[in-house]
Every structure is written in C-alpha cells, then in structure tokens.
Please model this.
Amino acid sequence: MLTFPRRQMLSAGVFAAALGLNRPLSFIDPAWAQVTPDPPIGFHRYKVGSIEVIALYDGIWEKPHDPGFIKNASVEDTQTALRNAGLPTEFVSIPLSVVVLKLGKQTIMVDAGSGGGQWQPTAGKLAANMRAAGIDPGKISSILISHFHPDHIFGLMEKGSNAPIFPKAELVVSATEYRWWTEPGRVEKLPEARKALGQRINTVFPTWKNFTLVEREGEVAPGIRLVPAPGHTPGHSAFHVSSGTHQLMISNDTAYVPALLGPHPEWQGAYDQDGPLAVETRRQLIDRVIAEKMMICGAHFPFPGLGAFAKDGGGYAFTPAKRVSEPKRGLRPYAG
Ligand SMILES: [Zn+2]
Model:
C-alpha cells in the first residue's frame, strides 16, 4: 500500500513506478503547485498506456468567500484548509481545466470548458490553449459530458446565439443527467440561481441531434468507461481510462477543489446538489483510486489537473503533479 507523506516532495520515479506510469512525472511541494496563476504554458501532455492525454487550461475563478459556500464549514474553516494547502486565503481558488484524449483516430474531449468567459470573465482560455496544443476543434470526434453545470457545458454553445461550437462531435452524457435537466417543469422547480441555466439547457439541447444518452456504467469509447458519480448533480459522471495496466480516473467535480475536500471529504458545498450523496460518492471514488493506485484528474484540481490521493486520518492528502516542460515539438506555448 502506498503512503505519501503530506506536504513533502515525492520521488517522481517511485511515484511513477507505483502508479504504473510509462513516463516519469515530476512532483513538487503542493504549496508551490496549488497556487494556480495563469500558467505560462496552458496545456500539458501525458500518457495513460497508449492513450495520449492533453490537459488544457481554461482559467481560474477567484471566488469571494461566502458563508453559504459549504454547509458544514465556516469561512474560517475554509480559510484554514486553503492555508494548509499553501493557497491564498483571501478567496477560494477554483481553476478550470479540460482534458482531451487521443486514442487511435479518435480525439475525445471531456467536457467543453466554460465558453470563452461565459462562466467567469477570468476563464476563457480553452480555445487558445487548444490551438497552442495543436488540437483542431473540428477534429474532436466526441465530447464526454460529466454534468450540466455552466463551467462544463457553456463551451458547447456560442455566447448569444447558442450555436453549437462542436456540431460534428457526438455528445455523450448520462441519461439520468440529461433527463433530469430537461424533464417537463424542471426550470420552475430549480432554485432561482439555476433557472437561467435550466432555461438555456431546455432551449438548446433538445434541438440538437448529436446527443448519445448512456443509461448505466459502461464503455463509451475503447478503454473509457462512464462511471456514475452522483450527488454533485443527479447524473454526474466520472470517466475511467485504462490502457494496458495503466489507469486514470477523470473525476470531474467529484472531489471539486481538493485543497478543501481532500482533508474534508464530508464537507457539503453549495455546488453539490445532494450533499450526503456527494460525500458518499466522493469517498467511494477516492478510496477506489487509492486502492487501485490510479492517477486522478479533476476539472478544478490545480493545473494540469492531475495528482494522487492517499488516506490521511479521516480524510485524504492530495499531491498534485507538477506541470513539466512541454517537449520541443514546434508547438507554440500559450502566452497571455
Ligand atoms: Zn465544475
């Protein structure tokens, strides 16, 4: 069983070997990695067996503190957790990244980012970073959608016109998620703050013909399984990637901001629609990732959104992976 000392530098070789990675990752002190200013290079490649993964940075929301943010924690508790992770305490750092998977001829994206500032004005860099990484948006064959929150789906729709940004891509989503948001009367039942989102979903998605609804856990592409991870939303999904003996859990929002929910998996945030179910799902998923010695990535993990968990008392210690330099491939790094 692996154990990772908290807030200590890990041996990249040991870590990579333990996780069965086929190339070494560098790890650094979380205090350094957790601070997520705009990275000088907004994309990062790594491999899971023969599958190439490209993490793309969309931006960061420096969320003002709000006593309603976490139901069972105070602003002071939140600030303590941020301080322990080496993050600024004046606000909650919520970075956003998207992953693209290349397998065979397929280019698969997980979620679509926040749509050029449609979620927060400070998160709109996905398209530029996609270009910088040499990914042609027109070549994306499918998009696996974790859930229907703005930071994950607004990147599917043009601002204003709602025109599809990826009209040729197959949009794969849990049937539970799709049906919950689009069932008759849903918009009226949503809390005030979610009504505009519900309205937009109901105006746009039923007119699109490229959705594939997935009824249960199972393979959605070769080596990629949809894993139901409900609580954050009713049909929130993780995606499990395996190639040979190598595995990656794309956890999306299950662990949200690991600086908070690693040490406090029991915290129920305003972001989780069903708090107790989200806590149960979070523990199950992280326990599985630890037991199977998997890498894990998450939409709101410090860029490049990748790391590892270890058990730590009643919670978990999260160790982020360092963004290593992009090998020289004649690609222009994102600058700006
Ligand atoms: Zn999110």
